[in-house]
Design a protein that fits this description.
Strand 9, helix 7 and strand 10 form a beta-alpha-beta unit. Helix content is 33%, strand content 16%. The strands form four sheets. A five-stranded parallel beta sheet has the order 3-2-1-9-10. The protein has a three-stranded antiparallel beta sheet with strand order 4-5-8. Strands 6-7 form a two-stranded antiparallel sheet. It is of the alpha/beta class. It is elongated, with a radius of gyration of 21 Å. It folds into two domains: 13-84 and 246-304, HUPs (Rossmann fold, 3-Layer(aba) Sandwich), CATH 3.40.50; 87-233, Rossmann fold, CATH 3.40.50.620. The protein has helices spanning 26-41, 60-70, 86-98, 109-116, 135-143, 187-197, 213-222, 253-258, 263-273, 286-292; strands at 13-16, 45-50, 80-81, 102-105, 149-152, 158-163, 167-172, 177-179, 200-206, 229-233, 236-237, 303-304. The protein is built from ten helices and twelve strands. It binds glutamic acid. The site of glutamic acid has 7 residues, from loops. Glutamic acid binds next to loops.
Length: 313
Amino acid sequence: MHPPDSAPATTPAGRFAPSPSGDLHVGNLRTAVLAWLFARSTNRRFLVRVEDLDRVHPGAEVRQLADLAALGLDWDAPPLRQTDRLYAYDAAIADLSARGLVYECFCTRKEILRAASAPHAPDGAYPGTCRNLTAKQAAARRASGRPPALRLRADAAEFEVTDELLGLYTSQVDDVVLRRGDGVPAYNLAVVIDDAAQGVDQVVRGDDLLSSTPRQAYLAALLGLPIPSYAHVPLALNAQGQRLAKRDGAVTLADLAADGRDAAAVLGLIASSLGLAAAPAERVDLPLLLTRFDPARLPREPWVFRPPQSRRP
Ligand code: GLU
């Protein structure tokens, strides 16, 4: 028996939801620290969710949780793993399907890109190619052997959300994928179901996800779930202004430790990047940062992280 998702946890919570596709880098850790500070400064529970529906790197989950703990983050329940929650995504898709809001999509990635770049489909949104296939057309496409993805039959063109840092934000709501052709539930569905089931009413995450937020909020509304409050925080960039990545050098806690910088030193670096420490070398801990935290004073621009030159000979 699975616990019913219809009775979500009621104590409000914030969360950090990493994908265990590799080690967290300082940019991810900084987002985690912010999510913790936002939650704790508003008397929320703090939860961690392992978003392992997609690419999983062996050992990454354990190392990610250990790295979060090493920085001093704590969470109030055992981490929720998405692969344990397939029944909940199935139930939501069944609900939408029973309401006539799901259709099969046979498009390849290439077909979607081609169609989405057409003038009538701005912003790369799915233009609804398979939305109104006749039963005969669908049967013909099915016979070609390509397993269909399932898409939401959205009836809004756009949806507005409020972001605590960025204000009102509107973007297109297209027919978002609910289940991929390979059978895996889509992130945009899982995130909505899980935030509600965990009682998450405050979503703090990297601003690369801002453009997906209106469609997630729309989906929540369709499913009768509460829409959380959002705060999208700037990402960490490398010296070239690109999104920080592992190839940029010593960027993980393990890399930095090997370089003589322990977790406390990395927390100092993160705190100083957020204006919460006078200098990267200041010794800080999370309780101290909590006393200094003020969302209104957070930097609004990306953090450029230059991996330190090795101190080792
Ligand atoms: N799992 C996503 C990531 O690691 C984050 C999803 C979210 O915070 O909503 O990018």
